[in-house]
Amino acid sequence: MTWLEMLAVFGAGIAAGGINTVVGSGTLITFPVLLAIGLPPVTANVSNTVGLVPGSLSGAIGYRRELAGQWGRVLRYSSASLLGAAVGAVLLLTLPAGAFAAIVPVLIIVALVLVVVQPRLSAWVRARQGEAENVPPHGGPILLAAIFGTGIYGGYFGAAQGVLLLALLGVFVHEDIQRLNAVKNVLALLTNGLAAVIFIVVAEVDWPVVALIAAGAIIGGQLGAKVGRRLPPNVLRAVIVVVGTLAIVRLIFG
């Protein structure tokens, strides 16, 4: 890499670390940069996943206050995220390149619709649960299945994984959106972390690229936590919709 390319990868890491902490979709910043400097798509995806793990950890630590009293919830969701991530990582290494290209924009569109209608849908779910004798704790099996599916996607590619997770949590869990964002950050960390371990063992990793992305993402994760927790719920939802829409445009039109 030239010095200019190194600077571009480092800057992309900062931006991705920040946006992953606030919403998600940081991969849509780093991945095109890695392709632009000449990395093959699979190597770029693998190196990007490994490089963003420290940024995910930084963002999760930045949101640690909002995790207070939620560790039971996090533990329930973690198994679904980790299992899904393992499946997704294996799919990346075995399926033909671009196998998920058609469905990824659809998943993001669904996530954005869920974010927009989340307040009303959440109220409807809460009303239905209030009529039931036994209310499913922490969202019930439907949410766990959805988190598992999101984990598969996260292990395979992961762009807008945070949008999907935050939309699902907002619908099925009756909690402040900032606290749900903290849970989302932990689940994204686990998903990316497990996928990264698998990639390090069995795939080709570009370590100079990983180091640059990781250094930038750590800085971005802390910046994102400071900005994200100050956003009102409606503003945060608006940011999610904007980022998700840009993600769809980037994926469809390259």
Automatic annotation (TrEMBL):
Superkingdom in the source lineage = Bacteria
How would you describe this protein's topology in the membrane?
Answer: Multi-pass membrane protein
Where does the sequence pass through the membrane? 7-37, 74-93, 141-173, 185-203, 209-228, 235-253
Keyword Cell membrane, does the record have it? yes
| Location of the protein in the cell | Cell membrane
Q: Does the keyword Cell membrane apply?
A: yes
Alphabetical UniProt keywords: Cell membrane, Membrane, Transmembrane, Transmembrane helix, Transport
Q: Name one Pfam family in it.
A: TauE
Q: Give the InterPro entries listed for this entry.
A: TM_pro_TauE-like (IPR002781), TSUP (IPR052017)
- The protein's predominant localisation is membrane
User: Which protein family is it in?
Assistant: Belongs to the 4-toluene sulfonate uptake permease (TSUP) (TC 2.A.102) family.
Tell me what this protein is called: Probable membrane transporter protein
Say which species the protein is native to. Nocardia fusca
Upper lineage is: Bacteria, Bacillati, Actinomycetota, Actinomycetes, Mycobacteriales
